[in-house]
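Justification of computing resources. Each target in the renewal requires a structure prediction run like the one illustrated here; the chain below, 365 residues long, is used simply to show the kind of job we budget for.
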Amino acid sequence: MQPLANLFPKLRLHNSRLIKSWFPKAWFPKAWFSKAWLLNAWLPNAWLLKIEESLHRGEIPKYASSTQVPLLDNAQIEDLRQRALGVMGYPATYKPVLHRQHGEHLSPRRGYGLDYDESRVYQQGDEMRFMNWRLTARTGEMHVKIFQEERRPSAFILLDWRASMRFGTQVRLKAAQALRAAVLLIFYNHYCGRSLAGLVFDEDVRWLATSHDEQSVLAMVSNINQACPPLPTECQQMDLASVLRAIQNLLTPGSQVYLISDFKDATYECRSVLAQLAAEYDVSAVHIIDPAELQLPKAGKLCLSAMSDDRVREIDTSNTHIAERYQHAAQRYFMERETLLRGLGMAYVRLPTNIANIEAELTFK
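Resulting structure tokens:
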């Protein structure tokens, strides 16, 4: 279920077209839309003024059909950029200087940098300008200086947009909250001087090109900020383990990796792949959940169908016994995943869809 505002097409504040813009054509005969009296009878001018004021305040999105337009508008993206600056302690008006590719962070590799590490015996091919003449004179054997090489660190963002992420009961879809977290982390890591890469996966894998500067980072944000229509039930989706295996050979050792998902298939069968990833990289797991997944809403009798089959099940959410059983099962389900991910040494964060200030929940390194 999507937020109510996202179910309507683009709002148009014109008297003869407002109802046509709000409601699907199938609800009314075609001839009704040409009747000006219908609008005047249903929507008084005071309502139109309230809608227009809400649009100016940003309470109603100008483009509200979530199946046709990107999940985030420009104002929301700019808000996330400013939140990233706030996390780093910068003012919202801060204009970052473009980072050079060599970076300013010490690498485990030793080479020709600025910070002296040690000296070793001269080998053929070493540059003479790095000779340690004092040590050479003292020992009688040629030595060269070795420095701590500076490398630009990198970050990789994996964004899950499979069918289970295209669900939401409060405020926004799980996919929308995952997108907000991804955009915030992209800006944060960019301002930290890290090069960025990533992928989005659902029924296929969409790779995000490596970004080094402000322009390429904005292009990455635009690339992941897309419409999120429901996926067909018959479509084949990528499993998490396969995606993790695909990226392992592409990551630079020591990279910061962010996994943003609901981890529906992060079971103990997937443990070996997750363990290998956590052993080689600094991994943060952002677990996206919807409040209804933790506790059934009190909505009376509901007919629900599982994503794995077409069977329809009727559940009485007002039944206290059923609600308690569901809550205990949900707590056990989420605790198993949290225990698995934390046990592998990952930084684990649970991020509900109804949380607005996501920067207060995420882990920044």
